[in-house]
Design goal:
The protein is built from 18 helices and eleven strands. By secondary structure, it is α/β, with parallel strands linked by helices. The protein folds into two domains: 263 residues, 3-Layer(aba) Sandwich (Rossmann fold); 84 residues, formyl-coa transferase, domain 3 (2-Layer Sandwich). The strands form three sheets. A six-stranded parallel sheet has the order 3-2-1-4-5-6. The chain has a three-stranded antiparallel sheet with strand order 7-8-9, with helices on one face.
Amino acid sequence: MMKKFPLQGCRVVDFGWVWAGTVLGHILADYGAETIKVESRRRLDGLRLGRVFELGTALEVNPTFHNLNRNKLSITVDMQQPKGVELLKELIARSDIVVENFTPDVMKKRGLDYDSLVKVKPDLIMISMRAAGNYGSLAHIVTYAPVISALSGIDSMVGYTDERPLGFKHAYADPTASLFGAFAALAALRYRKRTGKGQYIDLSQWEATTGLIGEAVMDYAMNRRVYRPLGNRHPAMAPHGNYPCKENDTWVAIAVKTEEEWSGLCRAMEAPDLATDGRFTDRYKRLKNIMALDKSISEWTSKHTDYEAAHILQKHGVAATPLLTTDRIFADPHFNKRQTFVQVDHPVTGAEVIYDLPWRFSKGPRKKFRHAPLLGEHNDYVFGKILGLSQEEISNLAKEEVIY
């Protein structure tokens, strides 16, 4: 009997825009869901655009788009036309999950909000991933992921000790919210299997990102303490930081949480005097004398390459790993062993490398990756095979620029 993928038989209509909703769609697609990305030539997904105006195959070369939309199908529909909306409703009536991350009024204006869609699909699961959810004073805020990181407070914790916050400088909130959304989707599918009822999930990207800094939020709520940037240090671990290694601009990250790990660090460094030094005999003292401790560790790491230092420390039960530049990540033995990156063949760009998800299932087959879809590549399949339209009907809709 052929083993099935976890979400095989599940169909997702993916209105994901740029990154947040898009990542949620690809997580579901990676595990077998038939995920159909809804696009339009009138307003192209920003990730297809390498420059302001693109035409033809230039729309098919963005590597970020290829990573975030692998394993998906693509259809082109003009949502501004009533016929386009009706086509989408017919598709959703034959689907299980709808994903979207527009501002609150976009779907409602087109009659594609949950209250409208549940009439055509009573057990529908729909996830709306807005910046601040559907309600409240900031419900209609238009954001980009770095704005959400700032609102959540997480940016205020990133920077060098006693200096102004630097923030993440990265769209960290988008994949974070997507992971919350994936968990919610799986929970909703399980709930529907048990009860026969669908769900509407109002997911605030802002709240999801704030959930990553629970300690800081609770410290303020209970003690009125505001977290400040700590550099690479940690309020309860010592040592905790990045330390220079033998070769130029190479570093090893080290984190010690317990006394057992501290003893392991001293053994790895072959430094018994460090273990008995009165400045470092417990965690409180190590935190108090962290600069002196960092200096001693840096003197040792500077005699080793980053991999040598990491392997020596790991053998003694200490959490340690090299800090890798992008090119070295692709060559890393651990990542390669785990197949962190996979190669796919794209019809326009040829062979290219995309990332795999970091978790694996103990049962079932390994997913075979399909390249990101060309714009509107699956119109005939979706409108013909799934919706049952004739080729003549599809051609007429294309002439009317409904399928466009």
